[in-house]
Write a structure and sequence with these properties.
The protein contains no helices and eleven strands. Strands 2, 4, 5, 6, 9, 10 and 11 form a seven-stranded mixed sheet that branches. The radius of gyration is 14 Å and the shape is elongated.
Length: 121
């Protein structure tokens, strides 16, 4: 009933930029938090950035000052602007959203399929 689709990943040189998009669709009554996570080979999935429906944001220390999360609530879409990329940013990036569906009373967590970001040195 709810789908999240990420786009915008790719291969970029160190110091470059990418902009990721996450579009949510389906039987959506309200989206609470939307966030970006990433998972590098051999490592656990980690939180990158989160944005609440009220506009508050939080970032991992490793990306503060370089990444910016934003939302277009009318389009049920979140973005992650990534500047000054480093090789250690290489990972699969996943979108997550806590969604209240029509007919439901509680939010459920949903994940996108992921998009690969590779930063060369």
């Amino acid at each position: 009933q709810v789908q999240l689709v990420e786009s915008g990943g790719g291969l970029v040189q160190a110091g470059g930029s990418l902009r990721l998009s996450c579009a949510a669709s389906g039987s959506i009554f309200r989206i609470n938090d939307m966030g970006w996570y990433r998972q590098a080979p051999g490592k656990q999935r980690e939180l990158v950035a989160v944005a609440t429906s009220g506009g508050d944001t939080n970032y991992a220390d490793s990306v503060k000052g370089r990444f910016t999360i934003s939302r277009d609530n009318a389009k049920n879409t979140a973005y992650l602007q990534m500047d000054n990329l480093k090789p250690e940013d290489t990972a699969v990036y996943y979108c997550n959203a806590r969604v209240v569906r029509y007919g439901d009373l509680i939010p459920r967590s949903h994940w996108g399929q992921g998009t690969q970001v590779t930063v060369s040195s």
